[in-house]
């Protein structure tokens, strides 16, 4: 039997580093022309339309991100509108049901679609950067770490790659997010994207569109880190403990069902960790001249959690649909879809897990 610490490592605690150093094992010398070491996300062996990590692969992943984020966020605009109004005016909008009733009474059914244009544009750009850059950074960091460390530190890799991607994604999202919140939460200010943009620029200049980028980072980076890391590890666990057969034996449809389930589980955690910052963003974009610290003090410990139930429903569904659409795009375009990572053979030898 090998030591207990090695047993723990083999089980791959996702949130901690290895607690010991591996002993060097002599490996037979290889030719310079041998294949590159397999990355964490090595391409699947079935028929694919492009090489894993190629420009075409990144471009189509970005396109999948546009569809997954742009379409899903636009589809839940009515719920998002009510959620934002619960956050910025809790005295008037007391619950989800009450929020819908008051909105329909004041603005009619069409009022529930307020902000759909900036939502679609903003979250399409965010999806392009979020999913596209995630693939870029995941492969980049994996190459830096090497095959064995990539496996041992894979959760840290997911967290780092998703945080890096979201940093750029939020810069792309910030202008349209500011417009969306202003249209949805400030009655009489503007009803459309075309009305809001010139008015905001005339009042506050370019700053009007980017003053919420830091709170966006506060909200979206933890959200995205949870979204990707939790999803990746949940997929591993579902195939290991829930799905009754190996992934290689599952049909594409069955694999997409696993994707949807893992996405919903990840979405619930995403909503919880990012909700306080979401409340700050909503109020900040409504009130001119306020800072994130001032808004946080004004809301207080209880105020930042207003609208959480609506956001859990919205984000859980959103995240599940986003992963489902994104994975479906990969299936449609026959992109490489790597299975959950396995321990490299060289690491198994060092741990004494093979003869």
From TrEMBL:
<keyword id="KW-0809">Transit peptide</keyword>
<keyword id="KW-1133">Transmembrane helix</keyword>
<dbReference type="GO" id="GO:1990547">
    <property type="term" value="P:mitochondrial phosphate ion transmembrane transport"/>
</dbReference>
<comment type="similarity">
    <text>Belongs to the mitochondrial carrier (TC 2.A.29) family.</text>
</comment>
<dbReference type="GO" id="GO:0005743">
    <property type="term" value="C:mitochondrial inner membrane"/>
</dbReference>
<comment type="subunit">
    <text>Interacts with PPIF; the interaction is impaired by CsA.</text>
</comment>
<feature type="repeat" description="Solcar">
    <location>
        <begin position="56"/>
        <end position="140"/>
    </location>
</feature>
<dbReference type="InterPro" id="IPR018108">
    <property type="entry name" value="MCP_transmembrane"/>
</dbReference>
<comment type="function">
    <text>Inorganic ion transporter that transports phosphate or copper ions across the mitochondrial inner membrane into the matrix compartment. Mediates proton-coupled symport of phosphate ions necessary for mitochondrial oxidative phosphorylation of ADP to ATP. Transports copper ions probably in the form of anionic copper(I) complexes to maintain mitochondrial matrix copper pool and to supply copper for cytochrome C oxidase complex assembly. May also play a role in regulation of the mitochondrial permeability transition pore (mPTP).</text>
</comment>
<feature type="repeat" description="Solcar">
    <location>
        <begin position="254"/>
        <end position="332"/>
    </location>
</feature>
<dbReference type="Pfam" id="PF00153">
    <property type="entry name" value="Mito_carr"/>
</dbReference>
<dbReference type="InterPro" id="IPR023395">
    <property type="entry name" value="MCP_dom_sf"/>
</dbReference>
<protein>
    <recommendedName>
        <fullName>Solute carrier family 25 member 3</fullName>
    </recommendedName>
</protein>
<dbReference type="GO" id="GO:0005315">
    <property type="term" value="F:phosphate transmembrane transporter activity"/>
</dbReference>
<keyword id="KW-0472">Membrane</keyword>
<dbReference type="InterPro" id="IPR044677">
    <property type="entry name" value="SLC25A3/Pic2/Mir1-like"/>
</dbReference>
<keyword id="KW-0812">Transmembrane</keyword>
<feature type="repeat" description="Solcar">
    <location>
        <begin position="153"/>
        <end position="237"/>
    </location>
</feature>
<keyword id="KW-0677">Repeat</keyword>
<keyword id="KW-0999">Mitochondrion inner membrane</keyword>
<keyword id="KW-0496">Mitochondrion</keyword>
<keyword id="KW-0813">Transport</keyword>
